[in-house]
Amino acid sequence: MATFLYKLGRLAFRRRRYVALIWVALLALAGFGAASASTATSSSFSIPGTEAQNAFDLLEQRFPDSSADGATARVVFKAPDGQKMTDPANKAEVNKIAGELKSGSDQIASVTDPYTAGAVSKNGSTAYVSVSYKVNSMELTDATRDALKDAGHTAQKSGMTVEIGGDALQVMPETGITEVIGVAIAAVVLVITFGSLIAAGLPLLTALIGVGIGVSTITALANVLDLGSTTSTLAMMIGLAVGIDYALFIVSRYRAELAEGREREEAAGRAVGTAGSAVVFAGLTVVIALVGLAVVNIPMLSKMGFAAAGTVVIAVLIALTLVPAMLGFAGKRVMGRKARKAAEAGNRPEAKPNMGTRWARFVLRKPVWVLLVGVIGLGAIAVPAASLEMGLPDDGSQPTSTTQRRAYDLLSDGFGPGFNGPLMVVVDTAKSSDGKTAAKQVSDEISGIPGVVAVTPAQFNKAGDTAMITVVPKDRPSSTETESVVHAIRDSGKDIKSDTGAEVLVTGSTAMNIDFSQKMNDALLPYLALVVGLAFLLLMLVFRSVLVPLKAALGFLLSVVAALGAVVAVFQWGWLGSLFGVEQTGPIMSMMPIFMVGVVFGLAMDYEVFLVTRMREAYVHGEKPGQAIVTGFRHGARVVTAAAVIMMAVFAGFIGSSEQMVKMIGFSLAIAVFFDAFVVRMAIVPAVLALLGKRAWWLPRWLDRLLPNVDVEGEGLRKELGGAPSDGEGRGDAQGERELARV
Known about the structure:
This protein is α+β, with helices and mostly antiparallel strands.
């Protein structure tokens, strides 16, 4: 592989104008497609194989006019102190607003009258108007939303409190200025790392081109492939981070080859042949982790994974082709001013021990202590993960400054906490001899379940073979008590089916959330087994070792659990929540842990490949195990540190998003990268390798013969070219040799 990539790098360098033109043309084509495409809607949310989804599908089939997948809104009214919503003046005002809503938009399916629908609280202080729409929230026009927002203005002038809840006010997520700050921090880190504006600008430019192509393609295909509104945001988050990092490693290796005195084209070829091999396999681990999300069998999650994986593939291709082409345009300005002057004078900078070298020697002297401190520290941070509670957000998780949250609180105060999460019980009486009797039996059974405060009469469809029953639990939607009510209704439905032949199904947003969380829990271990197993085989190919991939996987698990602990502490317990813009604590979003596992695993393997590949390269070229660790850190620590800081900055930039899921994922990825890069890869990995010595690179002979040699370390390329070893290969200062002799 190294030989092929070497030739590809030289070709891209020579034909740089054509390569650059091709990528610019692809960017323009993708941009035109995105501009021509209609506005993306929210992805259809479905959970195949769950009872809640089966009930929802049955409702759409048997109640075709109910607009089951349409947006909904609740306009909540609270009377002034000393008044009631049943007072003539207040009642007239509410009826007037309901009439205005009905005629306000042709997208409205129905508007209920609170005084005939029982939507007035017992004490008369609160009432609400339910609005159903024919389309989902992302398809609502601005005029329809404005009509909804303006509905309560007149009532507010009369002294009533008016708030609006429901998903009709849901809009595209906003990331805020922090995303721009994240990119700015990445630029500063690159300038400090390279000491050259040209070298710093290259990774940013190529990464932005790759993200532009990826996100524009997603936008162009959003409606065709039913991609959600958050898909492009997450693809941008991951694509930007890996795009900068992959280009960073190529540029860094190119500069090292130039410092060795190689010609520019030769340096570009060698950079792509060596660092490019690591980029390919690092990218493959990320793609495996993201595509592996399909095993969860949640279409929305699978599409998010595939879209993000596509941006990673683009980032890899750009690193292998566009980066060497841009290096050709940059000339020797890619080097810092001091380095250029030294090269022109024919002087070679003295090989002084850098920070990476000094740190590696320290770890080699105290491997046991470093290992213990790293493991115990991450273990302590992971403790809150034992209290992880998962769920999906509702209006109760919104900031208190939003009208959705205030409407949620008004309904809770007036009707009880469970009113915000009613359960929809669907009774399929097609196989029952007496449907009405079966439906009444279901209502009676549910009324006797502890935790149920209200059960509405059954409403049958026109065919009379399906009934809907609304059940209001006592507790809030995300509580364990409400989950127990759902399970109790489902258990009672089994007995009813055996007695009457009627099938009882529970759905609604609350039941959907419960089933979704359960499906996430059930899929986590199989997903981990698949992703870790495939990546283990991939890393075995890269490192020609059994213990190194095993160490990589165990270190990843440690950093992920620690990151989960930090997420629970901030978003569930509220520790330092104000620092990260968390206005309302609550359960961790169900999809966050498994999505974080997939992304972080791929990124963790990035650092493992980039750092340990350089060690493997030095070891293959004849260095002792201890000195190979020092060589790997001398050349890789500075760049890996810069890459980690850049990733953290990019991910942290999304903490400012208005979308709770994007905010939580941004935080979790940033903190996980910190733990994995600076604790696991920089401390635990060299400590373990120091303790293992030569055994770290052990591979059974029969397996060595079986596995293909992909030559990531470039040994075959080195023999073919017959050149001198790269900077640092096979060398070490005398002091380092004396210290390593004791290891």
